[in-house]
Amino acid sequence: MAYSRISDSNEITERYMDSILIKERLIDSVVADTSVELFGEKFASPVMMPAFSHLRQYEGRSLNGLEEYSAAAKNMNILNFVGMVENDMFKRIADTGARTVRIVKPYADNGKVKDQMKFAEDVGAFAIGMDIDHIFGAEGLDVVVGEKMDVQTSDMIRSYIESTKLPFVVKGVLSEEEAVKCADLGAKAIIVSHHHGRLPYAVPPMMILPSIKKALSGRGVKIFVDCGIASGADVYKCLALGADAAAVGRSMLPVLEAEGTPGVEKFVTKVNSELRFIMSCTGFKSVDQIDDACIVRT
Question: Which among 119, 213, 229, 250 has the fewest CB atoms less than 10 Å away?
Answer without folding.
Answer: 250
